[in-house]
Amino acid sequence: MSVSQRIRRKGKVNLLGNNRNWENYRDILIVLLQKELKVRYNNKLLGYLWSIANPLAAAVVYFVAFQILMRLRVPDYQLILLTGVFPWQWFTNAVGSASNVFVGNASIIKKVNFPRNIVPLCMVTNHMIHFIMSIPVIVLFLLFYQRVPSLTWLYGIPLWLVVHFFMVYGIALGLASINLFFRDLERLMSIVLNFAFYLTPVLYPLDLIPEHVRHYMFLNPAAPLIAGWRELLLDGRVEWLFLAVSAGYAALFFAIGMVIYRRLSWKFAEVL
């Protein structure tokens, strides 16, 4: 059974538009999410290993470049890299692939009448699940360096998951909607994410940023987000200022994304 047929069957969506049933929307989300997870984790163990191989390989390259070749003297630099690279991967993968998420699912969108914002919602959820599945890798490295996860993780991880999710979902929804009308947006976002990567404390701790410019970090929405994840995963501490700033950005981007989607969604059929 094709994905579109499963959506019709699960969603029970009629052509009159009487589809205000949240249980049906949930079923559609599950069907799309199952499709994405099946592609990523088709061979369960091997699929999982390949999914974490890319950030691990990147961390190794950065470690060799900065700590061995450039002799950057930062204690526990391996852990600093891992606790920055994995949250960043969720952010950049979701935002980077957002532009084409409607275009890539055009066949389903044309055949079935359902809320289109479920498609980027599925994509962001998929990357969130991937990030959650990478946390055991961070735990293994913490244990290797004779550290243990903190009990603060029990409430800190859910808090940061919610903030991170709504931030990237809002950005993804807005980008996916705009890209249907301006198809060069994907190339532009690739450039923006490259700049953001080096302006975000992924490869370095906040201590290396000079104090007189450190407060400018808050102008970059990803900076307090990644720094907050590192504080939690590495030191077992919830940095409430970072959480508050990130939550503010998340609310802002979510609101902007929803406004853009609602204003443009009625034209989707004309451009898909």
From TrEMBL:
GO process terms (BP): lipopolysaccharide transport
Membrane topology of this protein: Multi-pass membrane protein
InterPro entries the UniProt entry points to: ABC2_TM (IPR013525), ABC2_TM_bact-type (IPR047817)
Domain of life: Bacteria
GO annotation, cellular component aspect: plasma membrane
Transmembrane segments: 45-70, 90-109, 121-145, 157-181, 188-206, 240-261
Protein name, as recorded: Transport permease protein
UniProt organism field: Leptolyngbya sp. NK1-12
